[in-house]
Structures are given as structure tokens and as C-alpha cells.
Amino acid sequence: MTRTLWHKREPSETEKLTWWQRISTPFVAVGLAIVLWLYMRSRDLEVLDNYPVPVEISLAPSQAEWYELELGGASEVRVSFIGPPSRIRELRTRLQSGQLRVQRTISVPEERQSDARYVDVIRIDQQDLEGLAGVQAVIAEKTNRIPVTLRRIIDKQLQVQFQHTGGDRVERTVIEPSTVLVRGPKEVLDREEVLPTQLYQVPLRLADEQNRPLERSVSVPLVSELGGRAIRVSPDRVQVRFVLRPKRRLLELTDVPVHFLTPAGFAFRPQFTSPRAGLITLRVLAPAADSPAGIKAYVDFTSPGRTFSRGLYPEEPIQVQLPPGYELAQEPPRISVELVPLEGTGQPAVSPLSVPRLP
Questions:
Q1: pLDDT tens digit sequence for 85-111
Q2: Is 148 found in the same domain as 50?
Q3: How far apart are CA 175 and CA 242, in angstroms?
Q4: Phi-psi label, residue 294: left if phi above 0, alpha if psi -120 to 50, beta otherwise
Q5: What is the DSSP string of 97-164?
Q6: Roughly how many angstroms between the first and final C-alpha of the chain, as a whole number?
Q7: Is 286 a member of any domain?
Q8: Which of 93, 98, 232, 258 has the most beta carbons within 10 angstroms of its beta carbon?
Q9: Measured between alpha carbons, how far is 40 from 179 in angstroms, rounded to an integer?
């Protein structure tokens, strides 16, 4: 009996399992705690979705003077940010104050620098965003490409053209300086030969009230745009002198007598082929307030070096002498004239250079 009491008893299968569970339970508990912590940690995140971030694209300093940069779309990208709430709050403050932006510098390849225009597409990636410690950025694929156009800038001398509202009433225009230096896109200046002034409103009533041609001198600014592109002009203004004539009306003058202008000692007597042949009709533009006066028509036989002989001259041009402000509104008329020798002369004479006055 004593042997039975002191004999060591073997544990049962149920008791063995209980001991194993006691040893493994702490490890399982620790593992579950870690998983729970990671799960809670993953839920402690905030998302700032689809926020616009400005993009600044600039030219390389060595090319900034010779190219004009134009963006083909919006200068921003849409970015989503994921991170802890504290970081997201800091990021939102930076975004609202404009502190977070993408900056890129571009240049034209050497082999394309002779082109008038260079087109490229700038891709914005996550590494272009700086200062995002602890925050993950995801750029929307459709907004991360920005088309850019670079236009070559050149200098060119252009002739100045005076633009005004006076029509043909503005005469004898003189522009100083007549040419200016224009700086602008090569694709525009290559097809331009003149540079217009800004439209000048001509004071037409001033000449009409005085009923005489007026001399004017004005300073007129030049245009600052050609072909829809901005340009720079040096100088940006020109001085314009012109004559402004008053308003005119069309007159038809009938029975205007034709005279003869002959040199001294002329050996012939000019005469018309009929009594009515020496009267012509003229169409002239005259100042509206004037009554026509001082208009003379004549056939000139004083041309240097010209010789004459007896006979009919069927197409002699008629010279028309008009007062200031008048203009002939037709082709110069012609007339048939017969030269008859004066008594006591046998040979035709050569016209001398002295010209007598008209009657």
C-alpha cells in the first residue's frame, strides 16, 4: 500500500492539452494585439481627394529672352493625398496658402532652335511634389500632362503704315521715323512687311469749316499686337504730318475754253478744226463750299526738244490748271489742233524754252 501512495502518477491526455494551451495562449494574445494595432493604425488615415495643385513652367534662363511660352491647357494637376490627420491638416494649410506647387524648367533642344515654333508635352510625376513627408500623393492620370508651345522671338525692321479715318482726304503723308524695330514671334514677323499705327480719328469737320487744306502734325501710337500675338516696338510712337483737304463735290463744267501755250517766236498759228472744238467738258472734284473759278485748259507747245511742222495734230493732250484743293475726276482730255505757218515764214521752228503766261 505504501508503494502505491508514493508512486508517480502519469498525466492524462486531457491534462497534457491543458498545459499546451497555457503555454501558447500568451503568444496568441500578443499576435492578436499586434493585428488589432495594425488594423486600428490603418484606420487612422485621412484622404484629401482630387485637390488642384498649381504648376509653374518656366524657360531655361539661357533661352528666356528668345522664346515665348504658351500653355495649351490648365496650369494645374489634380492630386489625391493620403496620410495621418495631422499631416493632412498641415498639407491643407500649405495648399490653401499657395505654398505647395510644382515647378518645372524646360528648354528647346539645340536641333529645334531654328524652328519658328516648338511643341512639347510636360508630364508631372509624384517626384515633382516636394515636402510631403509622411503623406502619399497620387496624381490623376488625365491631368498630369500639360501641352506647351514655345515660339521663337526675333527682331525685325518694319515700315510704318498710317491708319486713319480720313480716307482720300488725307494727302501728302510723312511719317517720322518711317521704320521701327519690332520684336515678336518669328512665325508672325516673317510674313509681315508693314506695321500699322493705331487708328487715328481725323478731324474732318475742322477742314470743312475753314474750307481750305490744313496741315496737321500729330503723334500716333503704334499697334502692340500683330497676328493675334503681342509684340514690342521701339519707338512705340511716330510723328505724322499730313494735309487734310475739305470735303469735295463732283462738278461737271461745260464749254471750258481751251487756250494755246506757245513759245516766243513760234512760227505757227494753232487753230481748232471747228469753232466748237475749242470748248470742252471737264469733270472735277472741288471743295464743297467753293464756286468753281480759276480753272484753265490749254495745249502746251513749249515742250523742250520738240519740233513742229505744218499740219494736223489729232491727239494733243490738254493740260488742266486747277486751283488748290481741286482734282481732275477724269482722264486728261485730248484735242485735234492744226498748225498753220505764219506769214513770212517758210520753215518750221524749234520750240525755245521760254514759256509765256497763260491768258
A1: 888 788 788 888 878 888 888 889 989
A2: yes
A3: 9
A4: left
A5: TT---EEEEE---GGGTTSSEEEEEEEP-GGG----TT-EEEE-GGGSEEEEEEEEEEEEEEEEE--B
A6: 181
A7: yes
A8: 258
A9: 77
pLDDT digits (tens, 9 = 90+) for 21-55: 666 667 666 676 666 555 555 556 777 778 888 88
For residue 180, give the CATH number of its domain.
2.170.120
Domain residues for 127?
A: 46-152
Q: What is the pLDDT of residue 12?
A: 56
Q: Does residue 352 have a cis bond before it (omega within 30 degrees)? A: no
Whether 145 and 166 map to the same domain: the answer is no
Find cell 510704318 and name the residue: 160
Q: Please say if the pLDDT value at position 2 is more than 70.
A: no
**Quick one: which of 243, 321, 246, 331 has its CA closest to 286?**
246
Same domain, 181 and 277: no
Model confidence at 318, in pLDDT bands (50, 70, 90)? very high
The CATH number covering residue 121 comes to 2.170.120.30
142/207 same-domain check: no
Within 10 angstroms of residue 164's Cβ, the number of other Cβ atoms is 19
- Give me the number of domains the chain comprises: 3
Residue 212 confidence class, pLDDT cut points 50, 70, 90 = confident
Mean pLDDT of all residues belonging to the chain:
81
pTM (predicted TM-score): 0.57
Name the region of 111 (left: φ>0; alpha: ψ -120 to 50; beta: rest). Answer: alpha
| Domain annotation covers residue 188 | yes
Asked if residue 98 belongs to a domain, the reply is yes
Q: Tell me, what amino acid is at 115?
A: D
